[in-house]
Sequence to fold (381 residues):
Amino acid sequence: MKDKDRRPGKKAGPATSSRGVQGRAVQPAAGRLKPAKAHPASHGNSRPPAARLSEKTASKPPAQETVAPRELRMRTGDKPGERIPVILETKGARDYHLIDSGDGLKLEQYGPYRIVRPEAQALWPKSLPAHVWENADSIFTGDTDEDGMGRWRFPRQALGETWPMQILDSEFYGRFTAFRHVGVFPEQLAHWSWMKERIEAADRPLKVLNLFGYTGVASLIAAKAGAEVTHVDASKKAIGWARENQALGRAEHLPIRWICEDAMKFIQREERRGSRYDIILTDPPKFGRGPNGEVWQLFDHLASMLDICREILSPEARGLVLTAYSIRASFYSIHELMRETMRGRGGMVESGELILREGGLDGSEPGRALSTSLFSRWVPK
Fold:
């Protein structure tokens, strides 16, 4: 994250807000913005700096709020089985595919638009000729660090701020933001398809918790498949965008609770209430600040978060999914943490990487694999 978000001082307790505030920025920005120096990340796409999303941080950061740490429970019993490494691949979907990558860039098809963005993982040369790349509809320029700000350049014609898209029969808006992201992380399609299949195969409506829910694409997919969904994100802008996505698909009737709150506080309260969920999706950032100054450090607080998630899984739970972007770690780190967390619950922990597969101009020509993130997923046998 930005240097200003790493101020020295007293270490805060384990508090976190959702990935909207702490992970991804959602504010629209197609105009000129001053680049900001950022710390490079080591793996996959990063989430934009959290503090930028909180309107309170525009002038000065809020005071840090310390939440009393919750002690980890001592788990007993056998660890779940394991499947490693697992590579979950997204070749493309309706309205999205990775066209080409290389030289630190990626060329993607998002609905009607071809977009060029920085991609540190693309170490190889481009496959397609220069004129294909130069003919893109939008190119992100500016700070090329993982968390850097910049601007969008439109070589062919000016484009609107948003445009409609569809994945897994769920509609949502793409949006040009100042942090090079457009409102959806398509590599997550592998998890979303897995989730959708289990919801549709269940003999009852499953309860799904989407922590750090961002713009709500996963929540809409789950609800449309028949689940009762609780979507948690600390960013009002992210929640607003998610509601716009819901309205776009005329899906206001779907059973989704949109909760704008600190994610850690929410699950702590759900644990006290005895609430239970059948599927939990969690995609925390590596670092961030919540709306009331809560501080989240992934390596400090992830174990506690997963421990609480285990407690609020139902006895007949279908799965717990963790995705980790831009961390200096092997998937073995979160794999072993997940296995320790789920001691005594049986089942299987499968961990590895999410990748995007190049598809060429029409999406049908398999090319190189682009790694995007680490994941670990517990499933019952």
About this structure: The CA atoms of residues 33 and 63 lie 27 Å apart. DSSP finds eight helices and 17 strands in the chain.
